[in-house]
Please model this.
Amino acid sequence: MSDNELGLFLRTRREAVSPAEVGLPAGQRRRTPGLRRAEVAMLAGVSVEYLIRLEQGRDSHPSAQVLSALAETLRLSPRERVHLHQLSKGVSGFSCGAAENGPNRTVRPTILAILAQLEPAPAAITNRFTEILACTEGYRKLMAPAGLFEQGEPANVARFVFTHPGARELYPEWDAAADKLVASLKQGPFRADPMVAALVDELTVTAGSAFTDRLATLPGLPSSGGIDRIGHPEAGTLRLAYESLDLSIDDDQSLYVLLPADEASANALDQLVGRRPGGLRSIAS
Model:
């Protein structure tokens, strides 16, 4: 279990940047992937010793200037830069009312109305506890046969993925699904939220190393879009493009939408959930 989320994020991003991306020669006999610490330190204008302290969690108060220099050196996207600054606040004792009060489970009426307009496309509203707070009937038809809603509602996706046997049948690429769920749990307040901390402790016991190994090595920055492969007992294998759209910061929730990624998946999904004229349709990929 890693308590050094800032250091973990800096290290994984350093290892993901090639020397060529920052104008350095690749050289020979590189023992580590990506950039060396000395290279990052030189480009960011900090000492190697200070970068080591940051990565090892021995310094938890980097200045905004240092963070900006590291973000530039590591070629962070705007979303990754925001995440980096959030991590620095977290290790400095930053807290907010949302973390103290736990995940928001109240979905605003206008968001529910938007969700209704997406019917019958599979779509759901989730919070950072990975709970399904509301969903379309299309989402329920897609996910219920695997057992997502068997453990009570609001259904918890992380608990389902790591403890329910139906999850490995629903997600043929289970490792990728598990990685995404751990990254989602680690995003934002993480253990500063007592409900998230309790779920992490629960899954540490019930899921074992499949959960704890990811907890120690994955940074808390889940992808906001991509393609999932779903193994549905009635519709067969579906390739579904997903998008996760963050709602207002006051909501602290996300809209999660699934669309067929190819024509075969579109036809199978139509038979499973029905298709309303003018409703959301497949995307080409």
About this structure: Confidence is low (pLDDT under 50) at residues 91-98. The chain has 14 helices and five strands. The first strand starts at residue 123 and ends at 127.
